[in-house]
Structures are given as structure tokens and as C-alpha cells.
Design goal:
The protein is α/β, with parallel strands linked by helices. The chain has nine helices and ten strands. The protein is globular and about 50 Å long.
């Protein structure tokens, strides 16, 4: 299991938490989820305050809190400046904003539809403009060097979503890499709270080549050309469909909890929404 190293996160006495809320979960529809509003309520309830108006407000909202944490390694209390950034369909270019989050922020949370490995989606499923594409449109996909699907979903549903992406020829993870924006020296934790986000793992981690004895075909590469290591990129995801929102993840991070605590909390939280699901293996970290 991947772990969260708070000493690394806090080494500059600052923590950036960037959150992207997928379409349908930001209050776009009446009588449906407003996870975005609930997250804002959690932030305000924990003492965060919205920052002064800025030119970035059209892309994301920013909230700030100075919070004291106890670092067990140093056995001392440290004041940490925490910035929380929120984007959704209610903002301009949310997919591009989410790309910038993945490239530059320490903790990134996506909560929304997973589109069976295609990637986070910030607009209606009939539109492709604001999809953040992970699982399509690379040479490695064309050559079946990256698996298109690891999840148990019906393949016909993926085919349906893929057809909706015909106007897109790009891959957003690969685009970040081509711009040399991923950094090995930036310690990051990515949370994909979306149905079957295990489908993103091949693209993020690459696949082990027995012949070459190295990780190949991964899309998250640093300026050296190497796949970003597990030492500095931890990934949280789901093995199947889920109904839970990401609010417990945020609360656990603010409380300085471990990845094991987060996984267990999300397992219990999911069973509240889906009591018929007896699996204890819904969530994972890598």
C-alpha cells in the first residue's frame, strides 16, 4: 500500500490541496449531488477562508488556513499554510485547470465520473471538450502496450464513451509530459475517487517489461524521460463502481491521517451508501 509522507508534504511549511469535482457533482442539476458545495462547507467549518479576489478566480476558487501539526519525526509543532483550490464545470476550462493541478500541486483529488478509464470528466457525457483524457489516443494504446480496461465494467459501456471522444485526438497526461511539467522532486499524492479508477494505473505507472527490465509506456514522465517514481507519487483509487463522495478523504488529510486510515474510512463510508456491497477491497493505494 502506498503511504502518505507528511514530512515531505510539510517540508516547505506549506500544503496545496487541489480538488476537481466532476460534472453532475457540483450542483449542476436539481435533486442531485452537490459535492462541491459540501466540500466548501467542510473547508469553512475547519476555519478556511476564501482568499481575496484574483484573476485566477475564473478557473478555480482558493481557500486558506494556517494549521498547526505535530511532526513526530521532529517531535515538534509546526504551523503549515494550507491552500485549497476548487475547480468544476462552474469554472472556465476545468480540464486544463485540472491538468495544472496534476503538474504543480502536492495533493490532487478528483471526485466524479471515471468514464471507464477514459479519465475525469468536467462536462456532460455527450460533450468531449472538458474530458481530461488518460486512457486513449497514444501510440502505446494503439499498440495495446497499455491496457484499455482493468475494471469489471461492461465493455459495451466503454465503447459508448470512446465513441463520444471521436473529436479528440490528444491525451492530457501525455501532453503534460511533453511540456516537461512533471517533476520528480515534487512529492505528490493523487486521489481518483471515481468509478473503477484502477483503469488509470497503467497510464500513470507504466508496465513492467521483462525484456528490458524497466517500467515502460507510462505517461507520467519527468524531464529526464523516466516515469515518475512511487517514492514521489502515491496514487489512491477504486477497483469498482462507487457512490461515495471525497469529503472523508479531505477530512482525513486535514487531520493528518495515514493512507491506511483513509482507505479504511472510505471502505466504511461506501458501505453506508451500498450496504449490499460486502467487498473489503474497493479502494486501493499504490
Amino acid at each position: 500500500m502506498g503511504t502518505i509522507d507528511y514530512a515531505k508534504l510539510f517540508r516547505d511549511k506549506r500544503l496545496d490541496i487541489a480538488i476537481g469535482i466532476g460534472y453532475e457533482f457540483a450542483g449542476e442539476k436539481n435533486n442531485f449531488s452537490n459535492e462541491l458545495g459540501d466540500i466548501i462547507t467542510v473547508l469553512l467549518g475547519n476555519g478556511f477562508r476564501k482568499t481575496a479576489k484574483s484573476s485566477t478566480d475564473v478557473y478555480y476558487d482558493t481557500y486558506y488556513l494556517r494549521k498547526r501539526y505535530f511532526l513526530t519525526a521532529k517531535k515538534q509543532l509546526v504551523d503549515i499554510d494550507i491552500y485549497a483550490y476548487l475547480t468544476s464545470s462552474k469554472k472556465k476550462n476545468p480540464s486544463s485547470t485540472f491538468a495544472s493541478f496534476l503538474a504543480t500541486k502536492e495533493i490532487v483529488i478528483y471526485s466524479g465520473h471515471g468514464r471507464i478509464g477514459i479519465g475525469p470528466d468536467f462536462d456532460d457525457e455527450k460533450n468531449s471538450k472538458e474530458n481530461f483524457i488518460i486512457g486513449l489516443n497514444t501510440v502505446a494504446h494503439a499498440k495495446n502496450q497499455l491496457r484499455l480496461q482493468n475494471s469489471p465494467h461492461d465493455k459495451s459501456l466503454r465503447i459508448k464513451y470512446v465513441k463520444g471522444m471521436k473529436s479528440r485526438k490528444d491525451n492530457d497526461l501525455e501532453s503534460i509530459t511533453k511540456k516537461n511539467l512533471f517533476r520528480e522532486d515534487l512529492y505528490q499524492v493523487w486521489f481518483f475517487n471515481a468509478c473503477s479508477s484502477i483503469d488509470y494505473v497503467d497510464e500513470i505507472r507504466g508496465k513492467w517489461s521483462v525484456k528490458d527490465k524497466m517500467q515502460k509506456f507510462g505517461l507520467v514522465r519527468t524531464g529526464t524521460g523516466k516515469i515518475k517514481s512511487k517514492d514521489n507519487l502515491v496514487v489512491f483509487g477504486t477497483r469498482q463502481s462507487v457512490r461515495s463522495d471525497a469529503i472523508p478523504i479531505l477530512k482525513q488529510i486535514l487531520a493528518g491521517k495515514s493512507m491506511d486510515d483513509i482507505v479504511k474510512t472510505m471502505q466504511a463510508y461506501e458501505k453506508i451508501f451500498s450496504p449490499e456491497n460486502n467487498s473489503n477491497n474497493i479502494y486501493f493505494s499504490d
